[in-house]
Amino acid sequence: MATLYTYQDSNVRKTWLLMALFMVVVVAIGWFFSFYYDSAAILYFAIIFSVLMNIWSYWYSDKIALGMYRAKLVENKSDAPDFWNVTENLSITAGLPMPKIYIIADPMPNAFATGRNKEHASIAVTSGLLGMMTKTELEGVISHELSHIGNRDILIATIIVVLVGFVTILSHIFIRASFFGHGGRSREGGGGLGVAIMIIGIILTILSPVVATLIQLAISRKREFLADASGALLTRYPEGLAGALEKISGYSAPMVHANNATAHLFISNPFGTKSLSGMNKWFNTHPPVEERISILRGMK
After folding, report:
1. Which is nearest to 121 in space by CA: 147, 140, 141?
2. CATH no. of 68-154+220-297
3. Which of 17, 218, 229, 280 is 20 to 30 A distant from 152 in Cα terms?
4. Contacts of residue 113, Cβ cutoff 8 Å, sequence gap at least 6
5. Between helices 222-235 and 238-249, what is the axis angle to 10°?
6. How far does Cα 15 stand from its chain's mean position?
7. Contact between residue 289 and residue 268 where contact means Cβ atoms under 8 Å apart
8. What is the CB-side half-sphere exposure of residue 245 using CA atoms within 13 A?
9. Segments making up each domain of the chain, as ranges
10. pTM score, two decimals?
11. CA angle, residues 36, 42, 48, in degrees to nearest 5
12. Contact indicator for 22, 163 with CB cutoff of 8 Å
């Protein structure tokens, strides 16, 4: 029978798999570069780069995610007393160290948790969420985010922001070099092969946003259902989170700095309810809010 520890171990394995996949992709791109320009040094650089990026993303991906949304650290309890008290009390109840708490200046109600482990975790909420939620609804949101921390969802969810972003950047660098550079192989008569490699680079660039989306979707939607259930268990009041999700889903405008790379981090889609229509539903990083609310209100 699956337990929370089973899910924790699964997320750790997924993290290592994701890092390995990133390394393979970067080395493959490096190989294309080295072959096209007939320089082994490029391949060596790609290997060193992928190793260093894995290490760097493990330690600093949370800071990047927080920085993207200009999140401000709450250093004093008096600056956000309700936010501070709710987080502190629920952390004690969950048996977790109190995470650092941040506020994002944005009218859309939303929140996310980040960090490499429970000892180095952070929770960020928008100013809109703090202004809209009752205490029990705020408790529901914070319990959801603390559940992500306890279930070790936060490492794999945060690290993907950096890794996917750098794969995309490398793909763009490759295509620019293919168009504007002059590959060594093509100069030496290997024009046909050079064109083929350039086409591969074009395909990588075109597919990179799709690949990024698919990797985000690989962060199973069940993580949100699990965090909902764990959060409701923590507060013993599922209606708090259900009410919060209802208010969040009723806000249609997107976040000011909404970004596809970080959409999966949030408790609700940062692009707003309008993004869930048509074909976008197939690429949604979150399960339907109506279904989440129905499950929560069906809990005894």
Report:
1. 147
2. 3.30.2010.10
3. 280
4. 99, 121, 122, 123, 124, 145, 146, 148, 149, 153, 154, 265
5. 130
6. 12
7. yes
8. 31
9. 4-65+157-218, 68-154+220-297
10. 0.75
11. 145
12. yes
In sequence order, the β-bridge partners of residue 122 are 100, 114
* Active site members: 145
Model pLDDT for residues 216-275, shown as the tens digit of each residue? 666 656 778 888 988 998 999 999 999 999 999 999 899 998 887 788 889 998 987 655
Nearest one of 220, 116, 211 to 158, comparing CA atoms:
116
- Single-letter code of the amino acid located at 153: D
For 109, the token pair is 């109600």
- 268 and 290 Cβ atoms separated by less than 8 Å: no
Identify any residues that bridge with 115 across adjacent strands, giving them in sequence order: 121
pLDDT > 90? residue 208 = no
Residue 186 pLDDT more than 70? Answer: no
Rg of the chain (C-alpha set): 21
Q: Using CA atoms, how far apart are residues 235 and 93, in angstroms rounded to an integer?
A: 9
Q: Are strands 121-126 and 72-73 parallel, antiparallel or unpaired?
A: unpaired
Question: How confident is the prediction for the chain on average, in pLDDT?
Answer: 79
Rounded Cα gap, residues 243 and 134, in angstroms? 9
Average pLDDT over residues 112-136: 95
Q: Which amino acid is at 140?
A: G
Residue 280 clears pLDDT 70, i.e. is over it? no
Q: Are strands 111-115 and 121-126 parallel, antiparallel or unpaired?
A: antiparallel
**Which residue's structure tokens are 């030496």?**
188
Whose tokens are 């000892």? That residue is: 119
Place of tokens 């869930």: 276
Contacts of 55 (CB under 8 A, 6+ apart): none
Please state at what angle helix 153-180 crosses helix 4-36, rounded to 10 degrees.
Answer: 10
Joined together, the tokens standing for residue 190 give 């290997």
